[in-house]
Every structure is written in C-alpha cells, then in structure tokens.
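so ive been stuck on this for like two days lol. basically i have the seq below and the ligand is zinc ion, smiles is in there too. i just want the complex predicted, nothing fancy, no docking runs or whatever. if the output looks off dont worry ill sanity check it later, just need somthing to start from for the group meeting slides
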Amino acid sequence: MCTSWCLEKDGLKVLVDTGYAEDWPHFTQKAEAAGIDWRALDFLFLTHAHDDHAGFLNALLEQAQNLRVIASHKALGGLRRGQNGPGGGVPDADAAAVCRQMVKAGRGRHLFPKLDENFLPRFLWLEDIDLDAFLPGAQGLFLPGHTDDSVGLLWEGLLFCGDAAQNRPDYPLKTTIWIQDMAIYTKSWQTMIGAKPARIYPGHGDPFGPEALEAGLGALSQIRLNPSIKA
Ligand SMILES: [Zn+2]
C-alpha cells in the first residue's frame, strides 16, 4: 500500500492519497488510534489515479461526508476505468523485482473500484481552481512522468509528491519503481527541485530532503525503461 499522509492546518484536515481498496479497515483503525477524526476530513489531495492511491476513494467519500477531492482533471479517466493506465516501464533491476512481487501477490492487473459518479460534484480539479482559496498558502505542482495525472501538494515547505519520487529502502536514487515517460519524469524532478521544498513526503517510503533529488538528477538521463515487466 502507499503511505497516506494526514495534515491539519488552520482547522483544515487534509489527507494525501488513500490506499488499496482492501486497506480501508486498516486505514480507519490506524487513523483512530492516532486520534484522527477521519470522518471530519475536509479534503483528499489525490496525487494520481493508481490502485494503491485511489483504492478506497468511494468508501472514504461515502463516510466522510464533507470531504472534497482535489486532483488533476487527467485523473478522471483512470478513476472511471478503475485501473492503472497503460505504458511505461521499470527503471532498474530493484524496481523489476518489486514489480514481479506485485504480480505474484495478484496485483498485476492494478484494478480498483471505479469511481461512483454520484461523487463527481465533490471533485475540485487542480487545473480549474485557485488552490490557495481552499488551502491557504498551498501550491499545487503538476508532476507528470510516473503518470500523466500526477500532481503534488506543496504546503508550508512540505512537498507531498505522490509517486513523482519514491524512497526505497537501501536504494539511494529516489526514482519510482514504474515510470511512464522518462523525459517528462525528469522535468518533474526539475519542477520539484525548483519549488525548493524543505522536505519531500513521497507516496512510498520515508520523507527525505530535496538534495537527494538534486544529487540524483544527472543519473536519470542514463535510465532506459524496461517495459517487459508488468507492474
Ligand atoms: Zn503510482
């Protein structure tokens, strides 16, 4: 599953991403143990429409009744399809091994519940809104490359980047294990570096400093994606 980050500022409760559909009970238990009133969430910032980030979206919208979702308009196709989009590949052998594990675990098709269309009026598309009007001081970053709908939330110096970067255990380069387009992905790293975050909170792994992106940027041009392993 991905890491859901929960933030609260000026009385606004924001969740970044959900998880796999079956993670829903685990999410509610964990949130309650941490004293988070998830039913009172104001916003879900959805970084992209992948099975491990949007899996329990319907359940959350059903039960957190004031929740609105902020996402890229480009996420809508994937949310309606209930499946990760096609294209891309793994950037290295470590990523290939993780993807093979996913296939073994029965997650190879990357299916998730299709968005219940009744919830559509509760969506705010990042392309159409002034994010600052909803989350004062926040900035939305378009970070395509992992997927074309990938977006990040920069708030109080913290950048929640979804899968635009990943912090894998014992793997110094902060590349995601699946990348749709390497050139576009590289530009999004430049966008993240240019935004000068104090700290980056990825969708997978522990937070890290932006200097890790700067250090790894040059290595991205050497990467050739291998599309033959199904993520
Ligand atoms: Zn993803």
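The mean pLDDT is 95. The longest helix spans residues 182-194.
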